[in-house]
Amino acid sequence: MFSFATSFDKKLKLWSGRDIFPLYHPDISVAQVMLGALKNYGPKIAQISDDNGTRLSFDEIRMKTVRAAQNLQKREYKSKQVFGLVAKNSQHLAPIIFASMCLGCPINTLGISFKKTEIIHMLKITKPVLMFCDIEMYDLLKECLLELGNKAKILTFGGSKGDSEPVENLFLKTKYENDFIPVKVDGKNEAAVIVCSSGTTGLPKCAGISHAALLDAVNRFNIGTFSDVILSFGLVQWINGLRFLLRGTLCGATRIITTDIWSPELELSIIEKYQVTIAMNASYHICLLMESEHLKTADLSSLNILMIGGSKVPTYLRNGMNNHLSNGKVHDVYGMSEIACVAALDYPGLSGKETVGQLANGIHIKIIDDEGNRCGIGENGEICIKTNYKFLGYYGNEIASNDIFDEEDFIMSGDIGHFDENGYLYVVDRKKDIFKYCGSQVSPSEIEAFLIESKDIKLVCVVGIPDPDQVAGDLPAAVIVRANGSNISEKEVLDMVAGHFADQCKLRGGVYFVDSLPITQSAKVLRRIVKETTIKRFNARKN
């Protein structure tokens, strides 16, 4: 089906995937390619909703896409205006995304778990003129828009509420569907999507991905065929969810969708029911699947490829899951939102090592030390990535946009790793303070900035505690110096953070009260020492 391979230039100390010329002209839009694929596959079933059994063919999605685009044009929405989206994987999500792209309107995808602080932060930057959201999100979204003075119209999935309209209103016949042509775009310089990417402040950054970069990334991720059945619980707020939507459409596969919350039992039943051949999971899903009694009797014979992303998968988990896949294997995936796709994939997964695999087509990586010098084989350093089309940067954040590139226009990932002599990439650490919990990034500084506002807290340092099961990444933990006279409790701190931030920021590593924090002469907290002592206290609690 596909294969990844890495070559190494000893002189340049540069690792590269296969050098494949971009398939699409840089000025073509994502919409043009998707409409062509939808027309090509015609009556074949493109999507099945496990929620209600609704099946949509490629033809039906294409017609809904065209009608939605034309009806949005009737409402006088114009190219380059930003549309916002807060939604699960429901049956009408795909045509709404495609229709927005048809108009040259970048989609700003927001997380359904975002709190008010995060939503306002994103909307303030991207200033959407139209919002699409699940009906359950309407009240919160309306509150945020009113606070910002943004008069964007809201269209809702799952009915209507307040002054919203159901998205179905956009699927009304126009009588000139056959005449539709997508808006022309500057493929290399105009954003197709604006996805969430956490940054040094902890609040989501708005990563702009161009049409050219997105198409190149989807083509680079050449997984899936006409006969495949694809399952991914990933939401389109992240690049992973968009990748599966676009790749599945491009290759003519059938996608299985659901708005239900992931559980081992749900995934296993869907795989059996629809004979899923390709699935994508977060690493912590694998741990929970392995603990499920249903796995022992589940028929996973249809599953050929099970991709795992978000954090490193321990060998024991990969091997354990492989024992249940009679016709398939588990494959590690490594990538980042800013490159719109995967940089490496452990396929065919025969290395037997804790590696993220060989490089994808068109990917170039250098490893640099703290002085910026290029490293050789087996030498750890920061992983720096370059693709065919440059990342557009972060909306409203020029400093972060500039800082992510080095002088050679490589994206600095913030990950520490190395290559072995066979071209396998290993990710071993994080250079920055930011860490990941279950694939989602957590910023200590943002949680600290919030907690320090409390009159009961004098000093605070947030660190990541390695998950003892080696699955979830790091567990956020807070080390606190109480203010004089304060008796603030662990539960109060836990509730404060849980009520203000998204799920990944919850202090699952615990809250620890101390008399003082170790600091440098310049009054900076020594995080390394705090982390070391907190890990010891965490382990003592566990024991």
Write up what this structure looks like:
This protein has 543 residues and is an alpha/beta fold. Among the domains are: 145 residues, Rossmann fold (3-Layer(aba) Sandwich); 108 residues, GMP Synthetase, Chain A, domain 3 (2-Layer Sandwich), CATH 3.30.300.30. Helix content is 28%, strand content 25%. It has 14 helices and 27 strands. The strands form 5 sheets. A 9-stranded mixed beta sheet has the order 4-3-13-12-14-15-16-17-18, with helices on both faces. Strands 9-8-7-5-6-10-11 form a 7-stranded mixed beta sheet, sandwiched between helices. The protein has a 6-stranded antiparallel beta sheet with strand order 1-2-19-20-21-22, with no helix packed on it. Strand 21 and strand 22 form a beta hairpin. The protein is globular and about 75 Å long. The termini are far apart. The model has no long low-confidence stretch (mean pLDDT 90).
Protein traits:
9-stranded mixed beta sheet; Rossmann fold; GMP Synthetase, Chain A, domain 3; globular; 25% strand; alpha/beta; 543 residues; 28% helix
